[in-house]
């Protein structure tokens, strides 16, 4: 379900400007072609970055909300305005996807309490440690959330979308801050295997994958989920693989993690054979087993690092997929 708020009155808009630290506003018109073209990008940002009372994404139809449009001197569509503490912080005219993404992520990172934005550090979230590989960015926002699939996940835990959420995992939060919050991670169900399908909005060059896993400390080892150990990676699949199907298809890359690979935030970096991941429309991650003797595997977050490319060309992507059959 979309988290974007459709503004229906000036009073509603004014109330949101007072209650939310940051309000990202899309001034659009139904007849505007560029507005429709960039709408999926805006919805993607809204779905991944909305935070109650911190970051709110809204849409204002300039034809039905003329009073609001006039008050803010809207003369071109689309126009994006980002309000911080009720005041205009950033204005972007036109359907400039990159400017919109960079501006929103920068302020979103600030709203989470960090001093630097996505563009400055490349991290997108201040809870992670270390710098990104030189010349590459966090491109997790290119994941098509509607197409995400996860097999063998226990339904008592968070859904598949929590894996690409940029917020700080509750596993890294202390005391009362984390108490009472929803389980924002996933765990395997009947055994330790998980199968994740991630389609992208555009073709990507994928340099590194980062997986965060934060199993709790407990006396009873049988109750503690494991971190992933063996991960097989398949690019450019048209759909998620079945577990038996994956056994019959050679992975483009298989990575085995050990205890030393996990940093202080419970994150392991998986360096990919970059030449094999140059024109990627989707990834399937098959977590084959866990690092231990348990029966469950836990994953809190997944981050994708690389470069964004052009919108997908179905014909070309079909040929790329054939190379890995």
TrEMBL record:
UniProt keyword annotations, A-Z: Disulfide bond
Q: Where is the PITH domain?
A: 128-324
The record's Pfam families line, in alphabetical order, gives: PITH (PF06201), Thioredoxin (PF00085)
Q: Which part of the chain is the Thioredoxin domain?
A: 1-109
GO CC annotation: cytoplasm
Matches recorded under PANTHER family: THIOREDOXIN-LIKE PROTEIN 1
UniProt record similarity statement:
Belongs to the thioredoxin family.
State what protein this is by name.
DUF1000-domain-containing protein
Organism for this UniProt entry: Hyaloscypha hepaticicola
């Amino acid at each position: 379900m979309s988290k974007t708020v459709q503004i229906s009155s000036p009073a509603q808009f004014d109330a949101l400007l007072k209650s939310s630290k940051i309000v990202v506003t899309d001034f659009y018109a139904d007849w505007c072609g560029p507005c429709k073209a960039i709408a999926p990008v805006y919805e993607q940002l809204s779905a991944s970055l909305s935070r109650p009372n911190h970051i709110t994404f809204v849409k204002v139809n300039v034809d039905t909300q003329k009073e609001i449009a006039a008050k803010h001197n809207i003369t071109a569509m689309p126009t994006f305005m980002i309000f911080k503490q009720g005041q205009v912080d950033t204005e972007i005219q036109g359907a400039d996807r990159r400017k919109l993404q960079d501006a929103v992520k920068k302020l979103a990172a600030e709203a989470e309490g960090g001093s630097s934005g996505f563009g400055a550090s490349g991290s997108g979230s201040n809870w992670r440690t270390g710098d990104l590989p030189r010349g590459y960015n966090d491109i997790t926002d290119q994941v098509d959330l509607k197409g995400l699939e996860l097999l063998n996940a226990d339904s008592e835990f968070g859904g598949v979308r929590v894996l690409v959420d940029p917020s700080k995992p509750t596993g890294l939060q202390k005391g009362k801050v984390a108490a009472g919050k929803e389980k924002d991670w996933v765990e395997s169900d009947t055994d330790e295997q998980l199968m994740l399908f991630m389609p992208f909005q555009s073709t990507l060059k994928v340099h590194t994958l980062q997986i965060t896993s934060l199993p709790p400390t407990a006396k009873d080892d049988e109750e503690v989920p494991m971190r992933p150990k063996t991960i097989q990676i398949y690019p450019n699949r048209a759909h998620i693989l079945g577990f038996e199907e994956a056994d019959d298809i050679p992975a483009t890359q298989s990575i085995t993690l050990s205890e030393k690979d996990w940093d202080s935030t419970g994150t392991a970096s998986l360096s990919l054979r970059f030449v094999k991941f140059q024109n990627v429309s989707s990834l399937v991650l098959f977590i084959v087993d866990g690092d231990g003797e348990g029966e469950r595997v836990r994953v809190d977050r997944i981050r994708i690092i690389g470069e964004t490319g052009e919108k997908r060309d179905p014909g070309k992507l079909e040929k790329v997929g054939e190379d890995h059959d």
